[in-house]
Amino acid sequence: xxxxxxxxxxxxxxxxxxxxxxxxxxxxxxxxxxxxxxxxxxxxxxxxxxxxxxxxxxxxxxxxxxxxxxxxxxxxxxxxxxxxxxxxxxxxxxxxxxxxxxxxxxxxxxxxxxxxxxxxxxxxxxxxxxxxxxxxxxxxxxxxxxxxxxxxxxxxxxxxxxxxxxxxxxxxxxxxxxxxxxxxxxxxxxxxxxxxxxxxxxxxxxxxxxxxxxxxxxxxxxxxxxxxxxxxxxxxxxxxxxxxxxxxxxxxxxxxxxxxxxxxxxxxxxxxxxxxxxxxxxxxxxxxxxxxxxxxxxxxxxxxxxxxxxxxxxxxxxxxxxxxxxxxxxxxxxxxxxx
Length: 339
Description:
Layout: H1 22-45, H2 49-53, E1 56-61, E2 68-72, E3 77-80, E4 88-94, E5 99-104, E6 109-113, E7 129-133, E8 139-143, H3 155-187, E9 189-190, E10 193-194, H4 200-203, H5 206-218, E11 220-221, E12 224-225, H6 231-234, H7 237-249, E13 251-252, E14 255-256, H8 262-265, H9 268-299, E15 313-316, E16 322-326, E17 333-337
Antiparallel strand pairs: 1-2, 2-3, 4-5, 5-6, 7-8, 9-10, 11-12, 13-14, 15-16, 16-17
């Protein structure tokens, strides 16, 4: 209930601070009326003495017995017996029987069966956490490998990952661009699409120079012969290899040189064979000359004979001056007498 009147603090004449006027008189009139209403309300709603006497004035509890004592307004008391002397002061758990062990204040032990409340099979794995129970009832949770997702990561970690992913995407795009550039340099295509003729940087690519090298080496580009009209590559390495082979053995890739090809007809093999023929003929002539000399020697007894092949002389008699010589031009055996 709030205060309803505040004092005016009247002052005597000749002070004019507190005039006896309508405002001040109504102020007192209102307060008197409000107080009168409140007195009537209190009288109507107040409790009688009998009721008040039975109200609780105080309460006390005996810690040893657990008895609660209530003291009323009239001085009488009421006691309430409780089981506070059976309060648990400690507890344990029997894993084998699944019982809660309560040690009471009086030393006795109360056993509470929890088998229907706690069961091991109530623990279930999730996509992230795997649970296991030891023989002593200890439950262990382990994070399943490769199960942590964005929702489980700290915000700053996730932000770092997103930044790294963005960098990775940028590097991947750069790598793809470099890969396409490498393809352009190597094969003259970007993503299997030929490089445009206006991209000089990639037009003269590795494939282009490979073709030029192939043209110089074997007169072909990817199995296609260089056109005869292409003088740049016509005289290629294979061409000169064939010319060397033609000069050396009279064949090109085991095919004999055309007999009408006078350029290669008189080749190294030709002259080698010709030299062998001349050598065989010379040996044959020398053999025949030696036989003839031996025959002459047998007939010209008592003569002093000297043979000197260095100047073509086969027989010389220093006594008679007879000398046999092979003509180096015609190969004929000449007879002369040296005086």
